[in-house]
Design brief:
Strand order of the largest sheet: 8-7-6-9-10-11-12
Number of helices: 15
Mean pLDDT: 94
Family: Belongs to the D-isomer specific 2-hydroxyacid dehydrogenase family.
Strand content: 5-15%
Structural class: alpha/beta
Organism: Mugilogobius chulae (yellowstripe goby)
GO molecular function, one term: NAD binding
Protein name: Glyoxylate reductase/hydroxypyruvate reductase
Distance between the termini: 32 Å
Oligomer: single chain
Helix content: 25-40%
Low-confidence stretches: 1-7, 13-17
Number of strands: 13
Largest sheet: 7 strands, parallel
Bound molecules: 3-hydroxypyruvic acid
InterPro entries: D-isomer_2-hydroxyacid_DH, D-isomer_2_OHA_DH_cat_dom, D-isomer_DH_CS, D-isomer_DH_CS1, D-isomer_DH_NAD-bd, NAD(P)-bd_dom_sf
């Protein structure tokens, strides 16, 4: 579906003045528009920006339910000037080769960029836009919801209530762990970690601690958090929230070693990327009572097969990667991705650009 707004504008032009037929005007104009492929039916605000820009002609994989098959994507990107993708598309050397030398701008509708081969993009001089900040509130909000659902056993509790497990009021039935007087650890302190801590502070958390490759004093001072080693984070946290990006350095960094240092009353929460966790080690830690519970919004693979052992555990709450899923945030992400793309194609600085 190539964009029709430019066509309508052309039809309004005075053809006699230009001495060209409407078809000729259209052909002339279309040849000056940059070609873009959009790999998903993104939320309406972003599509509107592209349609009304008068700058690009774009084709779209017109579904949100099924991702574009790889073979189709490889065909569709041929010769495009710009590509707007979501996090399910692997942007690697094969795809960039298929796109060819016209491709100058890649805009991903995500804050995460582990689906992009940055080295290959850099080698080809392709600029990259992404969507940080606009999703911080939604992700922090969902992280708090997941933390509470996990620590206070909400999913198990509603299941019990619905299926006849609700007998008399019992003194220790479905007891969990509370935030008041707790130590909350943040693994990877960035905008999202700060936003989570800001939301948790009113629950009377006693102390915030964090670890990262280096101390982040400016961010830490906003939430009065103390920098500690990874070992200390594991040992001291009552709630450990993973907020780091997935990189070669953080791949499966939450593993047996980390879980073995955590308290058996601790709650592990991950809303970053599934790849930072060794899921077999997590299963072991949860099933043996090494840690109390885990709440995951992200897994490997996604979707996690329904037969996965983690689904058998009462003390593991699994969500289908919905941290940024609010209407306003997803629209803001699609607008930012569209604007990044258009600015990049005009040779201007993007609103949010990954500097490679
Ligand atoms: O933007 C991202 O990276 C996501 O994971 C979607 O919220």
């Amino acid at each position: 579906m190539w964009c029709s707004v430019a066509v309508r504008r052309l039809q309004r032009l005075s053809v006699s003045h230009l001495n060209l037929s409407p078809t000729q005007i259209l052909q002339k104009k279309m040849s000056t528009l940059q070609r873009v492929y959009v790999t998903r039916q993104i939320p309406p605000d972003g599509l509107k920006i592209l349609r009304e820009s008068g700058q690009v002609q774009f084709e779209l994989w017109d579904s949100d339910d099924v991702p574009i098959p790889r073979t189709e994507l490889v065909q569709k990107v041929k010769g495009v000037d710009g590509l707007l993708c979501v996090l399910t598309e692997k942007i690697d050397a094969e795809l960039l080769d298929a796109a060819g030398p016209n491709l100058k701008i890649l805009s991903t509708m995500s804050v995460g960029f582990d689906h992009l081969n940055l080295e290959e993009l850099k080698k080809r001089g392709i600029r990259v836009g992404y969507t940080p900040d606009v999703l911080t509130d939604a992700v922090a909000e969902l992280t708090v919801a997941l933390l509470l659902a996990t620590s206070r056993k909400l999913i198990e509790a509603t299941h019990e209530a619905k299926t006849g497990g609700w007998g008399t009021w019992r003194t220790l039935w479905l007891c969990g762990y509370e935030l008041a007087n707790s130590t909350v650890g943040i693994f990877g302190l960035g905008r999202i970690g700060v936003a989570i801590a800001e939301r948790l502070a009113p629950f009377k958390v006693k102390r915030f601690i964090y670890t990262d490759v280096v101390p982040r004093p400016e961010l830490a001072s906003q939430i009065n958090a103390e920098f500690v080693s990874t070992d200390e984070l594991a040992k001291q946290s009552d709630f450990l929230a993973v907020c780091c990006a997935l990189t070669p350095e953080t791949k499966e960094i939450c593993n047996k070693d980390l879980f073995s240092k955590m308290k058996n009353t601790s709650i592990f929460i991950n809303t970053s990327r599934g790849g930072v966790v060794n899921q077999e080690d997590l299963y072991e830690a949860l099933s043996t009572g090494q840690i109390a519970a885990a709440g995951l919004d992200v897994t490997v693979p996604e979707p996690l097969p329904t037969s996965h052992p983690l689904f058998t555990l009462k003390n593991c709450v699994i969500l289908p990667h919905i941290a940024s899923a609010s209407y306003s945030t997803r629209n803001a992400m699609s607008s930012l991705a569209a604007n990044n793309l258009l600015l990049g194609l005009r040779g201007e600085p993007m609103i949010k650009e990954l500097h490679l």
